[in-house]
Design brief:
The complex is a heterodimer.
Chain A (H helix, E strand, L loop, with lengths): L9 E7 L3 E8 L3 E9 L4 H16 L3 E5 L10 H16 L3 E5 L1 H9 L6 H11 L1 H4 L17 H16 L4
Parallel strand pairs in A: 1-4, 4-5
Antiparallel strand pairs in A: 1-2, 2-3
Helix pairs in contact in A: 1-2, 3-4, 4-6
Chain B lengths: L9 H7 L4 H8 L5 H7 L7 H11 L3 H4 L1 H21 L6 H16 L1 H8 L1
Helix pairs in contact in B: 2-3, 6-7
Classes of the chains: A alpha/beta, B mainly alpha.
Chain lengths: ~170, ~120
Amino acid sequence: MTSLRSQNIRVLGIAPSSRGFGFAVMEGENDLVDWGVKAVKGNKNARSLSNVRNLIAHYRPDVIALEAIRIKGSRRSSRVQALIREIVAMAGEENIKVKRFSRKQLNVAFLGKARGTKHAVAESLATRFSDQLSFRLPPKRRVWMSEGYQMDIFDAVALAEHCLRSGKEG
Amino acid sequence: MASQRLPNYLLTYRKRAALSQEEVAYLLGSQSGSKVSRYELFAREPGLQTALAYEAIFQRPVSELFPGLYEKIQSVVRARAKKLQQKGFRGKGRGFTARKRETLAAILSGEFEKRQQTS
């Protein structure tokens, strides 16, 4: 079990999805403070935004890490794209820096190559944070299966971890 | 840029242990998980008995479970130690005064804390 004594930057990684969003709070490269999935129904963007506001109020992060949606090839739905824009605006109001990373950047960081699956990234994170995440790794998705909801956690951890590793928070 | 430590990391350790709030409440001897929730949301500070029960549950020292609170208290104690040092000492002998001086210097430099951790 890693010690949580180091004094470091706090990053909130948010990975919106069709169900709601996954989140991860990290302090320094080694300390995963909180993680989970917020599933929402009804007005998904408004409810997700309210949940993000609560997380910001509770953890007071220095940086918010999100997926880059403006790059060519991003296949995020217009609702998720709008949610990401709203989170960026909220971060601006709270004077919190925002860092955005593409899937390609995450694949290079965690797998060493631009092409790779989300599951491969999740496996590497489950190994790294075995105490916290190993028992939450969903089974490898087959063609006929829908994505496990817990995959959102791994997406959020990947964003937060890469933000801290890349040292671009300044 | 370094963030201030959170008042406590009870939620982090509970999630690591894969325990629910109700299960932790049971281990603490509470009626329901709502008290545990209030501790985790920093809305309430637990008493000494509960803090020590948390130490027994998560196998971590209280100062590590409550680092933000610990740092706050530590800085107040250090400020008091500085004042006490400035006041001067009226000891029962030279050895006695020298020992007091050492203790206060250790509190101010954090040596006292390090000594406690290694012992």
